[in-house]
Amino acid sequence: MSLTGALANAMSGLSAASRNAQVTSNNIANAMTEGYSVRSLSVAQNGVSGGVMVTGITRHTDPVLLAERRSSDAEVGANSVTNEFYTRLETLIGTPDQASSLTAKFSDFEAALIAATAAPESDVRLQSVVDSAENLVKDINDASNGVQDMREEADANINRSVNDLNDLLSMTEDLNKKISQATIQGQDTSTLLDQQQQVVDQINEIVPVRIMDRENGGIALFSMGGETLIDGTAREVEFTSTPTIMPHMTQANGLLGGLSIDGKPLDTTAGGQLAGGTLYAQFDVRDEQAVTTQAELDTLARDLVDRFQSSGADPTLAAGDAGLFTDAGGAFDPANETGLAGRLELNSLVSSNGAGETWRLRDGLGASTPGDVGNNSLLTALVDVVQTSTVPGSNALGSKSVTMSEMFGNMHSSVSTSRVNSDTALSYAAAQQGALVGLELEQGVDTDVEMQNLMLIEQAYSANAKIIQAVDDMMNTLLGI
């Protein structure tokens, strides 16, 4: 080998070692950077001039593991939304062992009624019935209002998610262009590909996606339901938010907004085009879970109203008169059940904010004057109304004949079961996600290996430098002859 050939080989080796040191140092510096993929220098023999030639930088990823982890991310996101709803709902209505729960408030009302039968002449005991009834009504109202608040929050979250999704799709389009341009110009695209992966990760949590590679490093994204999100140009998802939501308002009756792309309506249910991530889960809360819970609360309120309005326990009530529990102060119309839990009121004849005539609990809501203070027959009939098993007027909590106490128990059981199931689903999804993230980390930057690589690079650099020094010495010797 000639001296010039040896010098050229050594110079190419120095250049490659220097570039390799830069890549390795970058790996070490980003060992804790989320979404960073390990790089390695690709080299080959220079067939023209000899020596070594840098052919590029390889970015190491496992597409199968990445796809599984993204699927797990979407599942955790969706289950987190569901779990938060049922956790908040259980807090709202309480658990049966809590003194502030709906069941406890009903038990207080039932106990006050029973106590009043023992001393019908006692104004204190009659007032206790009114107080406990008002507390029960307030808690049912609060639960209904809380459910609608969560529907409004879900609607606002949908709006934010859609805005975020559109922004992320635009970012993907921009990154596709930059990556393609860098690829054509022969530049390193590793950093841009990392950014692309992080953006897709965020999109995938909102809407799970399938990725199709396009030329020059670009990608196309499709939802698992087959909807194109970006293939060249990013598409825009459209949604109109509804700040105030009432119980009767649904997407089906056109009073709540749905999703569309380019004016084409999308299915927002579990079988829809964008199902599987947090966006779908928020629609599920707004349009399914919260609606079902409202129906259960309305069933509970209806049973309470029906028992005291239609049972015949109070003979002083005429047809069409409101009973002890009313629909916004009036008689209940079965055709207008939706939202009853939020409109439930105690009859103004006995309520503290109304006439406050507690003697009507003993003598009848329709009585013209107080009767015999020792007569407990109507109070006893009211207790029987509460404790008698009847078939509910609507079947959101079942169609079996139950007592009022059992009805409240069914409500708590429904919420607790849903919350436990959502806990289980979230725990399983989170455990799976943790395992997949762990596998990704194992394939990430190993600082021990990178430090060993730096030592080898240092040795290679030193060896090439010695060759250059030796060539320089030989050249000086030849020139000195």
Automatic annotation (TrEMBL):
Q: What are the recorded Gene Ontology BP terms?
A: bacterial-type flagellum assembly
The keyword Transmembrane is assigned to this record: no
The source's domain of life comes to Bacteria
- Major place of localization? other
Boundaries of every Flagellar basal body rod protein N-terminal domain copy = 8-36
Q: Tell me which GO cellular component terms the UniProt record holds.
A: bacterial-type flagellum basal body; bacterial-type flagellum hook; extracellular region
- Please tell me whether the keyword Transport is annotated for this protein: no
Instruction: Please report the stretch or stretches of sequence annotated as the Flagellar basal-body/hook protein C-terminal domain.
Output: 444-480
Keywords associated with the record: Bacterial flagellum, Cell projection, Cilium, Flagellum, Secreted
Instruction: Tell me the compartments it is located in.
Output: Bacterial flagellum basal body; Secreted
InterPro entries the record matches: Flag_bb_rod_N, Flg_bb/hook_C_dom, FlgK, FlgK_helical
Q: Where is the Flagellar hook-associated protein FlgK helical domain?
A: 87-310
The record's GO molecular-function terms, alphabetically, read: structural molecule activity
Q: Which Pfam families match?
A: Flg_bb_rod, Flg_bbr_C, FlgK_D1
Family under the similarity heading: Belongs to the flagella basal body rod proteins family.
User: What's the protein called, per UniProt?
Assistant: Flagellar hook-associated protein 1
